Amino acid sequence: MYLYEKLEQERKRREKQIAFTTPPPPPPEKRFVSLMTSMSHTYGNALAFIENWVLDLFTKDGNGDSMFKTIHVNSKIAHRQIRSTNKEFLKKSKPMIIFRPRIAPYDEDRFLQGTPLITRQADIHPTWGGGSLLPFLDDPQHDIAVKFQLNRVVFYVDVIIILETLMEQIDYRHYLENAIRWDQPFNLRTTFESFMPQEMLSILGDCCGVPLYDANGNVADFLKYMNQHSAYPITYKFRGASGTKEFFRYYPATVETTLSSLSTDEGEQIGSIMDSYQLDFTIKMEFYSNGFYYIYSNSHDIKMPLIKYNNTELIPTFTDVLSRADLNLDHGWHLYNRGAIRLEDPNDSLCIDSLLNNSIRLAIDYHLKNNMPLCDLIDLRVRKQGKLARYGREYTVDWATRTVQFINQDTFHTFSFQIIINLEYINNLIKTIYNLK
Question: What is the pTM of this model?
C-alpha cells in the first residue's frame, strides 16, 4: 500500500473520531425578559424569622409565651448601628425588647463574593446551561421557562432588651452568655419566600392559557398550574382587609448567624430611682436570596412590564416551616390548600372562599343546611408565627361565609393556615347529593 493511501485512511479515521467526540452545537438562544423581586419582602422575611428565634429564647414558664410585655420591631431600615433608646420606650411596660434592622454595605465581605453564582458578570444568560441562572419553572408545551439569579445577602439586627432591675440585667446577661455561641458563626435552617410580582405572573398566565384570576376572581387553577411546573412550591398570602394577594416562591434557606457585641448599660435614672437597665447585642445574618427572575420564550411576544414598588418600610413576613409529618393526617385526609395572611388590623378577617372549589363549597353548605358537624369533612388549622393558634381566643371561623375572624392580634405576626379535607368522604357525599352511583 502506498504511503499516500495510508495517510488518507488515517485522515478519514481521524475525521470520524472528531465527529464522534465533538458535541453538537447548542440550540438557538431564546428571548427573555427580566423582572425584579421585592427586597423589602426578603429583608422583612429574615427579620420576622430572627425575631421569632430570639423570642423563643425568652419564654415564660415554659408555656411558649414570651416573657416580654412590650415587643417593638422597627420596620424602617437603618444604615448605622443604633444603641440608644428613645425616652418614649422607657415609659412602656417592662420587660421590653426592641429589634432594629440595618443593611450591610454592598462591598461587605460575604461568601462567594465576586463569583458568577451570586454576582452578575455578563449580559448573556444561556438557556441550555453553563450560565449562572438557576431553574425555577419549565413548561416546554407552551414554550415557557423561568430562571432566577442567586444573590448573597448580609443583614444586621440590633436587639435591645430593657429590664426593670439591675439583678434582672445581670441574670439575663449571664443566661445569654451561656445559652448562645458568641462571636462564632453557626447555621440556622429555615424556609424563606421570594416575592413574585403579579405582573410577572400575569405574563405566565397569558402564555400558558391559565389566567392568574379566573372569571370569579379565584386563583386555585393558576396555583395548580404553577405547582405542577415549578421546581419549588408556590405559596399564597393575603394582606388583611384590603384583600391584596401576594405570591411567593417557597425555598429552604440556611442562615449563617453570628451574635456579637453583648453589652449592658449603667441604668436609666428617673428622679432618684434607677428604673431601666439595658442589655443589647447584634445579630449578623448571611443567606441566599433572589435577584432577578428571567422569563424565556420564543413563541410569545413578551413585553417588559412596569413594576412599581412603593414600600417605605420592611414587610415582615414569617415563613412557616411545615412538613407533611407535622400535619399528622389520618387515613383519607389530604392537605387541599394552604396560605397565609399578614393582618392590617388587630381584628382583621380573612375570606378563604376563593381557595375552595365548587364541590367543597357544596359539601359545606349541605352540612350547614342539615345541621351536620363539619369535623368529618374539613379541618382548618391556623398557625401564628409557626405555632398553632388557639380557636376562640385568637380566632374564630364562620363557615357560612368562609371567613376567619382574628381577635385582637398583633399586626406584625404572620398567620398561616392549612385547609385539610377528607377526600373519600367528600366524594361519597357528592354522589349522595346528586344521586350518583
Answer: 0.72
